[in-house]
Structure to design on (182 residues):
């Protein structure tokens, strides 16, 4: 159980991701979670009112199974294979986050100030963040997993541009917008 419950080295996780990507390339498939939203909408009949959703979603049912497996795996690991592990972050980061009002930094997996105290501000921030992620995913033609894992392993130029954009956006969020919001 220690092997399952403990953190795995980067080279084990990286090798597993590489094996999955090689298999998908040989099968002619591309990976990305955001495409599941389109698949689900198409399966529920959205293609009757919007041409974007009018396609044969059954060809992508393997990706829906991957999504279901990820949800079930996340539930099992969080509830049965976890001892409430808190990621180790540097003392400098902890002190900076505490300076921004996040007293749970270093002692909780996710900031309790955002996810456990659902104030109006937190609900608005989560809703706007969700809308921006959804818009960005559609605008970029895929999500971070689709571009950074599948697109880069397939040597796609648009994926490289998207991944560079993701990193730049993340840096701007963390170093410019995050301190302004909190």
């Amino acid at each position: 159980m220690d092997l399952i419950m403990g953190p795995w080295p980067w080279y084990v996780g990286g090798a597993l991701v590489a094996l999955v990507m090689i298999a998908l390339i040989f099968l002619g498939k591309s990976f990305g979670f955001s495409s599941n939203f389109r698949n689900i909408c198409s399966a529920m009949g959205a293609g009757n009112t919007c041409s974007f959703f009018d396609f044969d979603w059954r060809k992508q049912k393997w990706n829906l199974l991957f999504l279901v497996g990820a949800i079930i795996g996340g539930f099992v690991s969080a509830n049965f294979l976890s001892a409430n592990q808190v990621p180790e972050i540097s003392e400098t980061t902890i002190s900076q986050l505490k300076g921004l009002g996040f007293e749970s930094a270093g002692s909780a997996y996710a900031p309790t100030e955002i996810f456990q105290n659902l104030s109006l501000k937190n609900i608005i921030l989560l809703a706007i963040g969700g809308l921006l992620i959804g818009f960005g995913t559609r605008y970029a033609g895929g999500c971070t997993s689709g571009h950074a894992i599948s697109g880069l392993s397939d040597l796609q130029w648009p994926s490289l541009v998207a991944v560079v954009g993701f990193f730049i956006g993340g840096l701007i969020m963390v170093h410019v917008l995050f301190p302004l919001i909190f």
